[in-house]
Design brief:
mainly alpha; 8 helices
């Protein structure tokens, strides 16, 4: 499967999913994208102490924090970025995930969950350097795609068992 086909399929799944399905997908995906190990590679001089504290708290409380509280935390984080274009990839992934989640919570836009899915696929690609012409060739990328499909279309796994 080509990367563009994967993107189109993920979008189709998000559009067709139930409200409960997209919420479960969003919660599991944002939790995966703000996991503590992503923040470990950050240099001390990338964020102010206040921004680092806000980022850590937002990541730990991502499923219980309100949209308004997350908005405020993101403002502190953005104001506390000390580097121009060289932010640690894990920190950048976490900040982007928090921003998409905050927007989803505030506006209930499924497009934000599509963006979370893409960030999740990019996170895997960063680890394994997937081939864009055969994006599912690596076991890690195939597993992430299956995770996305399972959460957004629970009948997918059941259908396979009947064929």
């Amino acid at each position: 499967m080509k990367y563009s086909e994967l993107e189109a399929d993920v979008l189709r799944l998000i559009v067709a999913a139930t409200e409960g399905g997209v919420r479960a997908f969003g919660e599991e995906t944002v939790t995966r994208l703000v996991r503590p190990e992503l923040l470990r590679g950050a240099d001390e001089d990338e964020l102010t102490d206040e921004a680092r504290s806000a980022l850590t708290a937002a990541c730990v409380n991502v499923l219980t924090i309100s949209s308004a509280e997350l908005h405020d935390a993101l403002a502190i984080i953005y104001d506390g970025v000390l580097v121009e274009d060289d932010l640690d990839p894990g920190v950048l992934t976490a900040i982007r995930a928090l921003a998409h989640w905050q927007s989803y919570l505030e506006q209930n836009r499924r497009g934000e969950l599509y963006e979370l899915a893409i960030r999740s696929l990019e996170d895997i690609d960063h680890e394994v350097s997937a081939d864009l012409d055969d994006i599912l060739a690596t076991p890690e990328m195939a597993a992430e795609y299956e995770r996305i499909r399972r959460l957004l279309d629970p009948g997918v796994g059941q259908e396979r068992g009947t064929h």
